[in-house]
Amino acid sequence: MKPLTCRALLCVGVMALSVIAPVFAQPAPPAAPPVIEVSNVKFNSVRSGSGAWYETEVELQPRPGVAADNRQFINRVKVTLNLGIFSVKAPAGSRVPDTYYRASAEAVAVESTGGKSVFRFYLPPEIVKRDQITGDQKFYLIELFVDGKALPLTRNHFPIASLPKPEFVESFRSKVASEAGANDGVLLPQYLTPFAYAGSPPSPSFIRIENTR
Predict the structure, then answer these.
(1) How far apart are the first and last CA of the chain?
(2) CB 80 within 8 A of CB 142
(3) How many whole angstroms separate alpha carbon 81 and alpha carbon 188?
(4) Do 73 and 205 form a contact (C-beta atoms < 8 A)?
(5) Which residues of 90-103 are buried (b: 16+ CB within 10 A; e: fewer)?
(6) What is the pLDDT of residues 123-164, one digit of tens each?
(7) Of 73, 66, 78, 102, which Cα lies nearest the Cα of 176?
(8) Sheet holding 117-123, edge to edge
(9) Domain boundaries, the chain
(10) Which residue in 74, 75, 101 sits closest to 175, CA to CA?
């Protein structure tokens, strides 16, 4: 091949690479914002005929204009509450919970223009009285799912003061995963308690798997 021809082909190759390279060098597009977010977490003492229950309210706020498939509803919104408690067996001055609870509730759908939705969870009176559970909890993690897909964690999913770093959050999640199974069925979603139809705003309609088996 003549030298001139080689140089011409080389120039063409360089030009082609210069066009292709920026395509590969472009940063990945930013992730789409979640269609719904945790806006607040509240803790309350509420009473029924059997005594004082400990209530956790998880408030969710749909993001305006980003409903799935441009519809008015966000389907199958699931909330999992992971909770760490200092029980009566915890050594004095403990800085890390010694007892862990976990419960989930999955709504059939949440209206994207209907304002806030509230998911409520409860510890029963015996546990509240035994472990003297009062006030706001310092160790919790809210996990949020839509159509079975986990949404990214934000600062409203856990208390920054107690879990200030991502590695602390993951350590807490791991602790719950390994120990909460011993307390399955103690922390209850609202629809399994005497408060099934209580609260304002009312909770959404939930998927009840236990009724279909």
Answers:
(1) 77
(2) yes
(3) 10
(4) no
(5) eeeeeeebebbbbb
(6) 999 999 999 999 999 999 999 999 999 999 998 999 999 999
(7) 102
(8) 36-48, 51-62, 117-123, 188-189
(9) 36-211
(10) 101
Residue linked to tokens 């807490």:
172
Dihedral sign (CA 46, 204, 208, 105) = negative
pLDDT in tens, 50-92: 799 999 999 999 986 555 555 688 999 999 999 999 999 999 8
Sequence letter at residue 71: R
- For residue 140, give the nearest of 118, 166, 171, 172 by alpha carbon: 172
Answer yes or no: pTM beyond 0.85: no
What are the helix and strand counts (H, E) for the chain? 3, 8
Exposed/middle/buried for 179, CB within 10 Å: 0-12, 13-18, 19+? Answer: middle
